[in-house]
TrEMBL record:
The lineage of its organism: Bacteria, Pseudomonadati, Pseudomonadota, Betaproteobacteria, Burkholderiales. The keyword NADP does not apply. It holds the Pfam family T2SSK. SUPFAM superfamilies: Pili subunits (SSF54523). This is Type II secretion system protein K. The keyword NADP does not apply. The gene is gspK. It comes from Pelomonas parva. Keywords: Cell inner membrane, Cell membrane, Membrane, Transmembrane, Transmembrane helix, Transport.
């Protein structure tokens, strides 16, 4: 009878299994640690981006507050209208600024603009009153025609907005905020949400340079509006609107009566529909950090020396390399 042979093959197989398990566990631990570092870095970058964009917003509010001191008009020649070119801020992200070098910290670039929201036609004018004013309907129809919007676009906007923002009943006091309709569509807060009314994204993109949706009805600033908006607002041709645009380049309009002098005799501009100053501004800040760009858009209402942030949104984008 042969003596039993040692189980060398089984022992070797057991050892290989143990090594494989240990290697798998070690790889999992390394992966978890790597992910934890990534999450921490992303949280730190998000916090830094938020503080930088908040600082840019505060800087814009200070510019608008300074501009409001003793200036009755707002025009495109003022400091707020000059865009901030992309500036590198990577060195400011380092903990020790004196030791910061080009190799330390991620690359961060900040840019931004301040735009006059009242330089566009405010769609909230379509919701004022129990009956739609004919001049407001005509203005919107002309703007839709200028951008080659699909037929019936103006009617869709009018019916949708008046259903979303119903006028108070006859004899009722004016509401302190937006009146919510029980059966109408949701109230859009911006142009992007006009898709709720049935508009497509392409039509909204065409209208965006010329219309805006603000919390309340506002006049159009003739010092900042493009000629297309002026022509539609005053029901004049583009050549007449261009005369106003060219005249304000040399000297900003001081009153709407001064703008009327560039038109036909006895032309009267309603003060409720046009002005030469503004209360609403859109502040856009863009922070490019490594392969990502974070954009913050804020709507500011200026009431004297008070700058109130009415709405704010942030958009994060992954840049192509």
């Amino acid at each position: 009878m042969r003596p039993p042979q040692p189980q060398r093959g089984a022992a070797l197989l057991t050892a290989m299994i143990i090594v494989t398990l240990i290697a798998s566990l070690a790889a999992g631990m390394v992966w978890q640690q790597y992910r934890a570092v990534q999450i921490e870095a992303a949280d730190r970058a998000r916090a830094q981006s938020g503080w930088m964009l908040q600082g840019a917003l505060d800087w814009a509010r200070l510019i608008l507050k300074t501009d409001a001191q003793g200036k009755p008009v707002d025009h495109l020649g003022e400091p707020w209208a000059v865009p901030l070119a992309e500036a590198r801020l990577s060195t400011f992200l380092a903990a020790d600024r004196t030791a910061a070098t080009d190799d330390e910290g991620p690359d961060a670039f900040l840019s931004g603009t301040i735009e006059d929201a009242q330089g566009r036609y405010n769609l909230r004018a379509l919701t004022a009153g129990a009956q739609l004013a004919p001049e407001e309907k005509l203005t919107l129809e002309q703007l839709c025609s200028q951008v080659n919007a699909p037929p019936g676009t103006a009617a869709v906007i009018v019916s949708g907005l008046r259903a979303a923002f119903p006028a108070p009943a006859s004899g009722a006091s004016a509401p302190t905020g937006n009146t919510i309709s029980d059966s109408g569509p949701l109230q859009p807060a911006g142009l992007d949400q006009l898709t709720w009314l049935g508009l497509d994204a392409d039509t909204i993109k065409r209208l965006q340079p010329y219309v805006v949706l603000l919390p309340k009805a506002t006049p159009v600033n003739l010092n900042t509006a493009p000629r297309e908006v002026i022509a539609a607002l005053l029901n004049i041709d583009l050549a007449s609107a261009e005369r106003i645009v060219q005249s304000r380049k040399g000297r900003p309009l001081q009153s709407i009566a001064e703008a009327a002098t560039f038109l036909s005799a006895n032309f009267v501009i309603p003060p409720t529909r046009a002005s030469v100053n503004s209360s609403f501004f859109v502040v856009t800040g863009r922070l490019r950090l490594d392969e990502r760009q974070l954009e913050q858009r804020s709507l500011i209402e200026r009431q004297g020396q008070t700058m109130a942030v009415v709405a704010r949104e942030r958009i994060s984008q992954l840049l192509d390399r």
